[in-house]
Amino acid sequence: MLIVADENIPLLEAFFGDVGEVRRVSGRTMSPEDVHDADVLLVRSVTRVNRELLEGSRVRFVGTTTIGTDHIDLGWLDDNAIGFSAAPGCNANSVVEYVLSVLSLYAERRVLADWSQLTVGIVGVGNVGGELAETLVRLGFSVKLCDPPRAAQQSDDSTTFVDLDEALACDVVSFHTPLTRDSAFPTYHLVGERELAMLTSEQLLINSGRGEVIDNAALCKRLDRDNAPLVALDVWEQEPRINPDVLNRVWLGTPHIAGYSLEGKVQGTEMIYQALSRFLGLPIRKKAGQFLPEPALSKVSFTSAADECAAIRMALRACYDPRQDDARLRHAMKAPADERGVIFDGLRRDYPVRRECSSLKVQLKGTSKSLQDSFRAIGFKLKI
Fold it and tell me: What range(s) does the D-isomer specific 2-hydroxyacid dehydrogenase catalytic domain occupy (predicted)?
């Protein structure tokens, strides 16, 4: 059995080496010739999987190690009896920690003694948005949820949803929607001139979902006007050839890596391994945990003298500080225009190892129960 896989999927041989022969290829440039003799195809979001790629091939199963499926022609796969699996939720915690780190930077910029004073509107309450909401509520934030498809299907009063305009009135607005164009609630350019005009310099807009959800041309115009909001983008229109004019105007820019923690990547691989094993009728013997290496930083300690917000900020940034990715991206986009797409992809391909908060043990000596609860809510391991 031949398994053709995106070369940037981690631990391919560890998970799939005893299932079949693994052939690594470039996901961005994957061609019909690459997959013609494959039995299994494993991709990430940079590969369009459709009739043009697969017609005439032997592929009987497609797996994407991502939460999204807008790069997959699901109807064509179904019509041709090709098995499929995605990895929903695999990197949800990684994206949550990305947003928390951005929030900590924003609270510091606003000189807030307590970051939970910020109100947060979450647009798109699926695996990522839902987990983010739960974490923020545990941390004491006031959260408003906007998800029109879920609101339309809601059959009980367990969750209260608001419309987009109400979410856009929050101090921070974070987008976690899929990209849809032809659905009852399309998200393509969901945020355009009208929505951007509602935002002020007292607000932060974060997008770590899909780049096309925000009209980047309209965003450029808005950021050139008075009273413009701060904007943090991890996703962009026209990736990988992003518009440097947008990057130059946003407060924080990162190269589509919010979900790129090692844990998130490996969990995506594990989920597709499990799905393929079930498809082939094979036993599931491997788990992500057995392949995770020891983290570079394993323990930090705080005493009773620690300020609660400062301690949380330090621990979060010990695991991940988005300013490093921002600096790398801005430096990379100084390259000639015809090289920027390759360089953008390179930033993702060669992304340094980033571990989640669960990899870090936090020792607390004489600290408050409030601080202990906050560290637990974020996901740190505690030693008290």
Answer: 21-280
